[in-house]
Amino acid sequence: MVKHTIQIFGRIKPTKKTAAVYSVDNEEQTGASLEFVVPRDLADGFVNNKRECYKFRFQKVFDQTTNQEEIFEHIAKPVADSVLAGYNGTVFAYGQTGSGKTFTITGGAERYSDRGIVPRTLSYLYECFSQDSNMIYTAHISYLEIYNEMGYDLLDSRNKASRLEDLPKVLIMEDPDHNIHLRNLSLQQSANEEEALNLLFLGDTNRMIAETPMNQASTRSHCIFTVHLCRREPGSATVRRSKLHLVDLAGSDRVSKTGLNGQLLTEAKYINLSLHYLEQVIIALSEKNRSHIPYRNSMLTSVLRDSLGGNCMTTMIATMAVDRRNIDESISTCRFAQRVALIKNEAILNEELDPALLIARLKREIVSLKEELAMVTGEQRDDQLTVEDIQKLEELVKAFLDDPDPDFTLSLGPDMRKIQYCFSLLKIIILDQQGGRNKHSDGQDSSAATGMQEEKEENSHHSAAEVDKLKEMLQQRDSEIRILIKMLKKEKKGAEDAAAQFANITSDQTASPQSASRVSTMPLLKEGSMDTVSANHAGRAVQYMQRGPQLSVGKKEAFENFIRDHEDHLTIEDNKSLLKQRSAETRTLREQLNESRNRITELKKQLEMRRRQRAAHAAMANHTNFEEEYDPVEENLCKHIEQEKLAYKSTIGHLKALRTEIEHLQLLLERSKTKLHKDFHKWWSQEVSSVQESESGATARCHMGSPNETLQPFPAGTPGFRAPGLSSTTRDSPAVQDPNPGCPSSSSQEIRSITPRSGPPLRAVPAWNNTSLDGQVTDSPPSSEWRALASTTVSSSSIPMTGDQQTDADILAFVRARQNLLSRAGPAQQ
Ligand SMILES: Nc1ncnc2c1ncn2[C@@H]1O[C@H](COP(=O)(O)OP(=O)(O)OP(=O)(O)O)[C@@H](O)[C@H]1O
Asked: Ligand 1 pocket by C-beta < 6 Å: which residues?
């Protein structure tokens, strides 16, 4: 058992604003200190307004310039090490909203170097697994979000959650031994780093997509990413199970300060309530002789029960913003940390016997004991040795005879049948070796040997038949496997071809096969669905659209503009070019690797040749110990090989790091794309409803003004209505005339620049003009239907367009049919 107090670290968020006066001293022998000096006028707002200096102790305080790597090395790595050893571990970030909790735990979404504790810990854990060949490790991952006292499973892979409530709800259960179980929280096995990172990405995407207006940017929810580790020695029934919780708590801002009302206030109260219960638990734990700890008051404290005052190595990161307006919140974060530092945990090695492995081991022991018993009591086992037994024994005898070590023993266990069989084998071998010399020299021996020989022949005949049967089965399986591989390749090729058409971000051939499969599993657009979008449009829009549902033509165009003006666009482009650069670097490194491998092979050949030559010379000169003689050529070749091997290894290291970076960049891009989609849809629906509102008002007015209008203008689909960024006016289409000048829904309505209330402003584009991505404007109308419509001269009508390709085609067909009918009926009736 390891007793220790919860470790507390401080991290100060970089600021460009005027910072409060504070000082960090990491040189102190007993840890570090953080001191705030608050001027008297500011101090008035605090509980103790007489004080001007507030000094707090931490294990270490990381000032503004500290990077993510240092945070991982100092804070998370030691916890990860104890988890690898079999102890539970928790790292949690606490601090006011915007102080850098998510940045510290998960990381920033823009740069690879901004990776937070979670991805870095995953990389570290999997690296440790691969380096420790004496142990078998298995890892499972869960990702829980707690919001308003309700748990949600973030690893829901259905990708359908648009609200938090769509995610599976997690319920907390307690068994009679007071162990907490989380029902509905999925535990996903991850065999390697990439799978684990994909799970993190899935959880973060769900976290982002499912964020409600009330829950923006995770401010008001707690997120717990957990790695469940299992470690055992091969063949051993003893397993060590440990858990690592990486926790991003909700913002700790005090409600009175936030000035909230309504739903937000309820929410803030919930959060505050759960953080309040967390504080209560922490106070109770820091007090001596407190028997009752109120863990059950909230879901958060129930889940983190082991991490606080239990069986866990726990570390807290207090995140702080030091600009002057945040100083009181930072001081209260420090106060909270001081209390946390008093809590003592007792971490125990979570070692247990795996029942399944234990049963298997006990069964083996029973068999062995039975055999021993039979041997001691002289009881003979009369069942025959199986073909496998015989083969194994023959191999054992061969190994025994081949081993030059005189101490090497033939261990057969306490089974007399095996012992006798081996003896008979040995005898046959000896007799064989004696060959003709002793053959038939003694009639009795000879007949015994013949008897044994016959028995052996019978056995081998028997086993030959079995072997044939097995060979046949093997062939059958081989053919099955070949067929399956062929099918798989075909499937994979189909998927890759489709993915390659649409995904140029991930089209790099050097990307890992796993990432390729990630791309191929994305929903793809149907062929031909892009016919009216320019090639350029198709390229980029499709890249972004891979995640979401198919968009109509107008929406695609609007999306194009939206992408261009989105705040994340530059970051995405930067990451894309970085990805390309890294992929190119990977290609170069691969080439270097191949060259290095070839050089090593060549050098080895030369060395081999040299050795042969020397051996041949020595043989001619009858020179026996030539191998010990110094040969400068050989020495030089060996040196070269070693150098090449070193270079090879270092290139492999580089490649591995590059691969991780590429995978991370791909995930960042995916996340940005998802965000873009989400933002676009939000903005689009806002625009649609606002246009609908204004158009319906205007339509009502126009109706009153033109009672004789035959074709009724549609509220939201008139040519005057324009999807954001999409052509809307009929200015360039003289065939379509405005029946109601001045009416907002009429065709004469000029370009209306729609500026989103949220999201980037979009530029207006003239009707019939297709604006390509590079900004060139062409005169072609956006679709053939439109051209046809123009030529049918639908005068004095406003054609409603919905933006949905199918629906719009139906409307146009209807209009054309009507036009035909009217022209047949004659102009008089029109
Ligand atoms: N150490 C840092 N270096 C650079 N940027 C940072 C750092 N810490 C935080 N940021 C930036 O500050 C912003 C807010 O950080 P973050 O979202 O991590 O805060 P938070 O404490 O998790 O907030 P919330 O409680 O609302 O979830 C982000 O844009 C983030 O990238």
From this structure: 13-14, 95, 97-103, 108, 217-219, 251, 319
